[in-house]
Structures are given as structure tokens and as C-alpha cells.
Amino acid sequence: MDDRGFFLTRHAVSKQLAAMPSELYLVRLIHAQSRCAFPGERLWTAGQLTSARTIRFLRARNREGCDVYFHPYAGEQNAGYILVDLDVAQPKVWETMHARGHAPCVVVQTSPGHLQAWVCLSTNPLQPAVATAAGKWLARAYGGDPASTDWRHLGRLAGFTNQKPARRASNGQAPWVKLVYAGASLAPQADSLLQSARTTAPLPPRASRADAPVTPSSTDHAPFPNTAAAHAGAIYRGCMQRWRIADRFPQPDWSIVDLWVARYLLAQGTPAPQIETILRLASPHFPRRHSHPDDYLRRTLARAAFPAPRGALCVDRRPPPGPNLKHRDGPPHVCENSTSPGSISQWTLVTARTHPESGNLRRSEGEPGCRSVL
């Protein structure tokens, strides 16, 4: 094993992620010649992605001809980072971006003469249309690839080789993806750029699906009028996406999801009246069967004020729970496990376990269960 190469890759990955902090990162492996993606997309925390086993797994796939791509993950929103693919980098383009207030937090050389820059425009998630508009603006301003401006476009992870045949040197060697610059920072002109992007971004379509209903009757009683229905729906759907509610629970108990959302928003410092409004506007089919909606919301907020119990252990060898899972202690937590890097999942979610006597799905005190979701 090339220990020096391993440590150089691990160091490069660690520096790049440190300059682009995010709760989760999506990693995709694509074979350079066949253009086929490696089965599954993996979500990792920074700690999991920089672990020795993960780095060795990614290096092995890279040697087999797979390119390693990633982006900070925020569900159905952009995590606040915009990729500028400078496929034919102009001289001193990086210095020009700095001078105009669009300084990148990360610059990667994907091959000689080809750069990718990540510009941090927000510490909060951005709407896809806004992020795409900002990406198009930056691509036009600095000569970036206009085809790489999608809000969730993937960039290369430093420390691995670029396996594209066209990028190989005359001796057949694949060039290394090198970290040119890394420094966590918000672009000085981020607010101005986002303001321009919002004026040009197309308006999002009205929600018509059952997973984010908004009715006129629910907005009439909103105690926090500054929270728009679309914004409330985006927050609620973001939580559902983050916890993969639709994938894990075919028929979720929406009262439990409301509790999880309320607990999460309280932890973020969101005022209680605003949380009530978000639940009122965005909780599916609200008020459902609640005869006293206001009382239901008050009780949900009161319960959410107490922290969710956490288990100390995570064992991912248990069989996955059935579709009638009801877990009332709080949203799933990302936790370390013993799954090998080559398996289908690299992170697990605390859920519930089947009680050995009754067969009912419930969580025993101090005995959380886990199952993989990827």
C-alpha cells in the first residue's frame, strides 16, 4: 500500500471539506470510460468521508477508473456553494474573482490548465432556481462552462486522479486533482449577487402535491404572517428530505413528523410562533383530524421543547423495520457504524426496533435500532 499517497489524499480531502463545511456531502463515482455511475449515491459526514476506510475505498475505485465527484448536500436545496467550472481557465481569473468580491472558498486544478472554483454565497440553503441563476451569472462573468451551472452540479474531490482519457499525459499517466486554494469564507459580494439572482430566477411552481398542501383556510389564521406559505413548505419539505421520510415510512404519522420538525426548528433558534405557522401552513392535510388545531400546535411545541432521547449504540446488523414504523422520540440521527466502505451505505439512521415479545415496532429505552437508507 502506498502510505504516502494515502496520506496525501486524506490531507487534500480534509482541507477541501474544512473549507466547505456542511452537515452532509453527496459523493458519486463515475467510470471515466463507460460514463456509468457506481451503484448508489452515498451521503457522508465530513468525519466519515475522511476516515481511513473511506479514503482507501475511494482510492481503490479511483484506481479502477472511477472519477470521484461530490457536492455539499442540503436535500432539495443548494447548500450555499456555487460551482464555477473553469474548463479553460483564463490567466489570473482567480485574482479577478477576488478583486470583484466573488472570492472562491476552494479552487481545484482538475488537470493542467483546468480549474474548478467553489464560491460560498450563503450559510443557509438556497432555492434551486436562485442557485442556478447565480451559477449562470458567475459562469458568464468569469468564462465558466455554462453547461455546469445547475444548482446541484458535482465538482471533483481533490486528492484523486482525473481518469478522463483526454486528460491523460503523453506517458499515459492520469493527472492528479490538486487543491490550489482552500479557505472557508463567504464571498464579500454574496448578498449583491444573490439579490440579482433572485430577480432573474424563475418563480417556483405552486405546490400541488399532497406532501406539501397549502390551503387558503390555513393561511387565514397564521399567527406569524411574515412566514409565506411557499417558505413554510420549503422548510417542511427540506426536513422530510433530510430525514428521508418518504423512503423510510410509506405511511408516516404526520403528528410525529410535526414533532420532529418543531424540535429541529427550536434547536435552530426559530421563534415558537413562527414554528406554529410553519406547521399550520406546511404539515400535510393540516389540521387533519384535530378538532382543536391551535391546542394541537401548542402541545406539539411544548413537547418539542424537551430534548429527544439518544441511544449510545448503533448496530446496523438488525433487520430493517416494517412499513408501519412509528418512532416518537425524535428525528433520526447520523451515527457511526461498522459498515464497510464498499457496502451500499456509509451512514445509518437511528430508528426503532421490533420488540421481541409483542412484535410491535417501538423503541426500547436505551436500545435504539438502526437501518441503512442508501
How would you describe what is shown here?
This protein is of the alpha+beta class and 374 residues long. It folds into three domains: 3-196, RepB DNA-primase, N-terminal domain (Alpha-Beta Plaits); 216-304, Methyltransferase, Methionine Synthase (B12-binding Domains), Chain A, domain 1 (Orthogonal Bundle), CATH 1.10.1240; 308-374, no CATH class. The protein has twelve helices and 14 strands. The protein has helices spanning 3-19, 46-49, 52-63, 93-99, 128-142, 190-200, 216-219, 229-243, 245-248, 254-267, 272-282, 293-304, and strands at 24-31, 42-44, 66-74, 77-78, 81-86, 106-111, 114-120, 155-156, 178-182, 334-335, 348-350, 353-354, 361-362, 370-372. The strands form four sheets. Strands 1, 2, 3, 4 and 8 form a five-stranded antiparallel β-sheet that branches. A four-stranded antiparallel β-sheet has the order 5-7-6-9. Strands 10-11-14 form a three-stranded antiparallel β-sheet, with no helix packed on it.
